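Fold it.
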Amino acid sequence: MDAHRTELNAYDPTIAAAIAGEERRQADGVEMIPSENYTYPEVLAALGSVLTNKYSEGYPGRRYYGGQEYTDAIETVARDRATALFRAEHANVQPLSGSPMNQACYFGLLNPGDTILAMDLSHGGHLTHGAPVSHMGKVFNFVRYKSAPDRQGAIDFDALLAQAKEVKPRMVLCGYSSYPRDYDYAAFKRVADEVGALTMADIAHIGGLVAADVMRNPFDAGFDVVTTTTHKTLRGPRGGMILCKKTFAQKIDSSVFPGLQGGPHMNNVAGAAITLKKAAEQDFRDYAVQTLRNAKALAAALMAEGVTLITGGTDNHLMVMDTVASFDLDGRAAEETLDRIFITTNKQVIPDDPRPPLRPSGIRLGTPACTTRGMDEADMTRIGGWIVQALRRHDDPLAIERLAETVRDFCRGFAVPGVSNI
């Protein structure tokens, strides 16, 4: 890797400088975007390997090109590790990312125009769960259900059942990108069974927490299909996986290839295989437990300062802050203020947000990345205090400058995996 970096520095100093700048940014700041994490050095080695040179359309033992003995071995190991870890009957490890993995499920199991009952985007769902601006929202008939933020984000399953009986979905989908609670998968399954619908859970955000058995596993409730990304809480390469019952294996595999995509990125598949091995170890379970502890500590620190959190806390790795109610700042202004003190967040809509998506009413915060660096509950309390100070004094340049120095000095005590000391 060092030799390759030297070659890059000599050949393209512009790109080399941008990579070095990103390394410094990651080392100097606290990464609190819930969907981001630091992958393992072993995964980085696989991503930069000669596997990136190889086309592998098809599946192990049934490829369209020759020279597949090693790629077949890698993909087989990845699939076996995925099924064992998630207690699934079948795994497809080829999806290039989270959005195409969900699209492959819809196209593989449903017909265009079929009804899918899924969570509203502003209440925590994902763009691929039928947001009107997404292509999937145009191809399938998504009907959206909501949470009750005033009841700590509870789902009213009696109302959901009534809605399901009215719209008669072919699929009941649960999963989220900004919902701070765990799901009652058994209750979703009962609703789906009542109307004869398939069950699908998108656990892209919490895949690592489910793998570590610190959050519920949809398969324990009898779900048909579960999707997850391999980065985020799993700490792997950027990619997706589809886990399902054997009944749906052929449909899912055909939908991924040749239905939706061509050759898989075998360097990513190898990285996923390494990640799944890591996730089966005790060190990873300890990491997942600490991620949840850190989230609760951060939420408590913020609420102690009078900050309004959607659902009044968190059961997982993330939380959503109502910055308008708490600081009279929209989410974009809050995000930009925290960027100035080296705390990276993302602007976020809140349930039924009256503001536009690029200037929403909140920000989203998460603990996977900072937990990876070794930060604990006491550190979360400090970070929560800095966040509050910055947002309260956002128009005080001197205060912001001092906080920036404090945060940067703090971060120098925590290494970033895969990044040499800056």
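Residues 45-279 form a domain with the Aspartate Aminotransferase; domain 2 fold (CATH 3.40.640.10).
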